[in-house]
Amino acid sequence: MGLAAKIEVFHKERITPSSPTPHHLRVFSLSTFDQFSPAIYFPLILFYPNNSDIPEVNNIDPQCLVVERTKLLKKSLSETLSRFYPFAGRIQDHASVCCNDKGAMFLEAQVNCPISRALDKPDLGFVKELVPNLQSTEGDTGHDLLLVQANFFECGGIAIGFNVSHKIIDAFTLSTFLNSWSATSHGLQLPPHQYVAAASRFPPLDLFKPPPPFVKIAKERCRTRRLLFESSKIESLKAEAASAAVQNPSRVEVVSALIWKCAMKASTANSDSARPPSSAWLQTVNMRKILGQPSAENLMGNLLGFFAAISMKGASEGDLQGLVAAMRKGYEELKVKYGANGVGVDDVSKLLKEYGEVLQRDDIECYCSTSWCRLPFFETNFGWGKPLMSSPAIEEIKNLTTLMDTSDGRGIEARLTLKEEDMAIFEINEELLAYASLNPLSYS
């Protein structure tokens, strides 16, 4: 980005629910999943280029258009917070949210460049400024659970940035919230309370202190890179990764396996006595699709489980099929173990404790991955078209991969953070570059 590009926040206010939360809903219980979720925030950005096909763009003064769109966003957000009332509250202890209608922080910012500067040559440092800044990212009591920043570019384009507490919100819950918000902006009538608490099925544990965090912000020097896997390349990768064990691997499996394979090779090349001999791919999973109950699909909050695929460094680094098979085996075992009726709080607690224990092991180098694929972020239309792309601006959490759909729903964009010395080798891996574009010049 050029030095002239500047993002200036010119207004802040707190958006409160349009109607007060009823007294009997004022205390919102965290679920077992919520309690184990890390007290961090995760970001999202939705880009809306100026759409000249929308009549209002051509018939209204640009400044008036900013005012009208801001009013629409604030009004519909207020109405949506009445349905997702915990988002306007504050975490008060390790077991509940005080739904006191304090509201969500809403920032307005002016960007003195066209939106193409953010889309055509995306710079991670600049993109992060489109997300609301946090005074603290530790998720302590009293902090906002939802922050929104509407960024208005000089060309008329808009980027809406979010910072969201992972303590009560996962990607599925956020996408549900955003689609409810965009539907409200079109005047659609929705049920008064859409938030079905996961605690109704998985009530909180009687904890006196929170469990140890699952992820830690990297202390080492790290680098984050974007990787674009086009649909045609993914099909070729599927053909190479298919085997008797997994005849029809998924997009996420083959992309994950290739990233894991190349990351292990980079780690091995930099090996010293301090490097663990084994490697694990820890894949977070939306447990709504695992739990053997139809009602689980509607639960809000965090419902994230995981499975682990283990590989000895050097033994399987060249075996893409073996890595895919290990991932599929881990997923199928998770389904068998937790897909039956009767899974309870103790089972969930055990699963999540196991996740933390794997991360703490000294003999395994862990790579954590989360997939937002198939979540309907691209359907978030406030009246000026669907977003061109959505982009999580990731904190530098070492060995973390985030996968997202491209706008056509067939490709995958990955963001990966590795130690500097590992990334230097990873990003020149010829096999990787045969399937992925590194730091592409534009979003898809």
Features:
single chain; 444 residues; alpha+beta; 7-stranded mixed sheet; 5-stranded mixed sheet; 12 helices; globular
Summarize the structure in words.
The chain is an alpha+beta fold and 444 residues long. The protein contains twelve helices and 17 strands. It has helices at 32-36, 55-59, 62-83, 116-119, 124-128, 171-185, 231-241, 251-269, 320-338, 345-360, 420-426, 430-435, and strands at residues 7-15, 27-29, 41-48, 90-91, 96-98, 104-111, 146-153, 158-165, 196-197, 222-229, 278-286, 299-300, 304-312, 364-371, 400-405, 412-419, 437-438. It is globular and about 60 Å long. 43% of the residues are buried. Residues 136-141 have low confidence and may be disordered.
Present the secondary structure layout.
Blueprint: E1 7-15, E2 27-29, H1 32-36, E3 41-48, H2 55-59, H3 62-83, E4 90-91, E5 96-98, E6 104-111, H4 116-119, H5 124-128, E7 146-153, E8 158-165, H6 171-185, E9 196-197, E10 222-229, H7 231-241, H8 251-269, E11 278-286, E12 299-300, E13 304-312, H9 320-338, H10 345-360, E14 364-371, E15 400-405, E16 412-419, H11 420-426, H12 430-435, E17 437-438
Parallel strand pairs: 6-7, 9-12, 11-14, 14-15
Antiparallel strand pairs: 1-6, 2-5, 3-8, 4-5, 7-8, 10-16, 10-17, 11-13, 15-16
Helix pairs in contact: 3-6, 8-9, 8-11
Characterize this entry briefly:
With 444 residues, the protein is α+β, with helices and mostly antiparallel strands. 30% of the residues lie in helices and 23% in strands. The chain has twelve helices and 17 strands.
